[in-house]
Specification:
heterodimer; A: about 300 residues; Four Helix Bundle (Hemerythrin (Met), subunit A); 2 domains; 13 helices
């Protein structure tokens, strides 16, 4: 016969164990959800775009000391960019399922419900735009236009129709930096336009090197790309030309910002590295050089943005 | 190495004259790009034949910077030597005359290495700079050692495992950058 006191203790420990297990399971579920959505927002891409937006904002010196505004820019841009990315992932889930590179994405393998992703993406986008408009109406309009161009024009309308869709992808990519600059400067100026153009010219280096590496995947999925439509050599020429243009545009924009000479020298060094790699991929093309150029271009853009924030 | 070299590019190696600033910018700029390429492509990038040409730019530009700090009038002459030397290395390599290529490389590297070794020592002994400036000479000596190792490895006079070369050379580059940075901070 069990001691009554022991019986009570046993009962308590059972209840406690169940409760603890439920809490652990709940925590695991939350962690898993966060991990899934981290993939759905393409965290590296979102991070880079956010960095460009902040760089545009901080390229105008004064506002950097306004911490609430800085947090507002970060938050509104993060919500808008990640929201549009989720909507794009939702729309392109059928293509993702066909490509080896993307067939393990959460939507492609059914790890998360498409309706849920669409609703979360829409919620993020709406919250991001509302927050942007509250900060500044013009800033909000620019952020909205970026989202509209990215989702409606680039992803839904043009991506599956023409390889030239990447131009619109580039325009959308240049919006965060333009929005940040306009907010900081309280006006459109030639520096902001140049910064956006610098991103636009950089986009072919970023996207085309990628499409060359995975051209077979894109062909299977039926997505028109430059390598498929115009061949590899023409694509390399486009990459080299756009790298030079991007470096030149960023350089002039940096001078316009008033970047100090030392930081300009470093930007020049990094730009020379980009051009050297782009020209190497033209003269001695190879898979290795091509993907090396993709990685260097990403590093270059991030470094340029950091320099513009620090200058 | 990338961060240290980037810092040196931004501050222009603590130089005052434009020629000094740009000479250090070129030298450390090559180190920035080399460092980034090693990160992206791995250490096997050091097997690329262009490495010889590019690695010549580093001692030539650092030595030009040092010469310009000592004598403005001689710095122009030295700069002409550096440009001609680089051109000769490029031409001799294109001609595929291995003996001529080695001689030209040895002369150019040797002269620039000597200047990197001796100028800091001379400046410290004259009392024009702080003693730490002599670290540049250590960096130069280390760079010369690295160059010698490459030369002996390429001419098969030295046999080291390929993976050791991949660790040794970047390590030498890193230490060289550190020594140069410490030395230049003493100006």
């Amino acid at each position: 016969m069990l001691c009554p006191v022991l019986q009570v203790q046993d009962l308590d420990s059972d209840v406690y164990a169940n409760h603890a297990t439920k809490e652990r399971d709940h925590l695991k579920a939350i962690k898993r959800k966060i991990s899934l959505y981290w993939k759905l927002i393409k965290s590296l891409q979102t991070g880079l775009l956010l960095a460009t937006g902040l760089a545009g904002f901080m390229s105008v010196k004064c506002p950097v000391f306004n911490i609430p505004l800085l947090l507002g820019v970060s938050g509104s841009l993060f919500l808008s960019i990640s929201g549009s990315t989720m909507i794009n992932m939702w729309y392109d889930r059928d293509i993702d399922a066909k490509m080896k590179r993307t067939c393990y994405r959460p939507l492609a393998i059914g790890d998360v419900s498409p309706n849920e992703v669409f609703l979360v993406g829409l919620l993020f986008s709406i919250l991001g735009i509302i927050w942007s408009i509250i900060i500044n109406p013009i800033y909000g309009i620019i952020v909205f236009s970026g989202l509209f161009i990215d989702v409606v024009i680039y992803t839904i309308w043009l991506k599956r129709r023409t390889c030239w869709a990447i131009i619109w992808g580039g325009v959308a990519g240049g919006i965060p930096i333009l929005a940040g600059r306009v907010l900081g400067a309280s006006q459109f100026d030639w520096v902001g336009i140049l910064l956006a153009l610098g991103i636009l010219f950089w986009i072919p280096t970023h996207i085309m090197t990628f499409s060359m590496r995975y051209h077979e995947d894109y062909r299977i999925a039926g997505i028109p790309t430059f390598p498929i439509k115009y061949g590899f050599q023409f694509t390399r020429i486009m990459i080299a030309s756009s790298s030079v243009l991007s470096a030149l545009t960023m350089g002039v924009a940096a001078i316009g910002i008033g970047m100090t000479f030392g930081y300009l020298r470093l930007l020049l060094v990094l730009s020379i590295g980009l051009v050297i790699l782009a020209v190497s991929s033209l003269i001695k093309p190879s898979e290795k050089v091509n993907f090396g150029l993709f990685k260097y271009a990403s590093l270059y853009m991030l470094s340029a943005m950091v320099l513009m924030m620090m200058f | 190495m990338v961060f240290l070299s980037s810092y040196q590019v931004v501050i222009g190696g603590h130089g005052v004259k434009q020629i000094t600033i740009w000479a250090y910018t070129i030298g450390f700029g090559v180190l920035v790009i080399a460092g980034l390429l090693m990160v992206i492509f791995g250490f096997e990038i050091l097997d690329n034949p262009l490495v010889v040409l590019i690695s010549t730019i580093i001692p030539l530009s650092i030595s030009t910077g040092l010469v310009s700090q000592v004598s403005t009038s001689f710095s122009f002459v030295y700069m002409v030597f550096a440009i001609i030397g680089l051109g000769l290395i490029l031409i001799s390599r294109k001609m595929q005359n291995s003996f001529l290529a080695k001689v030209v490389l040895a002369i150019v590297h040797g002269v620039s290495g000597l200047f990197i070794l001796l100028i800091p020592i001379s400046m410290v002994l004259q009392g024009g700079v702080q003693p730490l400036f002599i670290m540049i000479s250590f960096g130069g000596a280390l760079m010369g050692l690295g160059g010698l190792l490459i030369f002996m490895y390429e001419t098969k006079k030295l046999s080291i495992p390929a993976n050791s070369k991949s660790i040794l050379l970047p390590g030498i580059l890193l230490l060289t950058t550190i020594f140069f940075s410490i030395g230049l901070s003493a100006i």
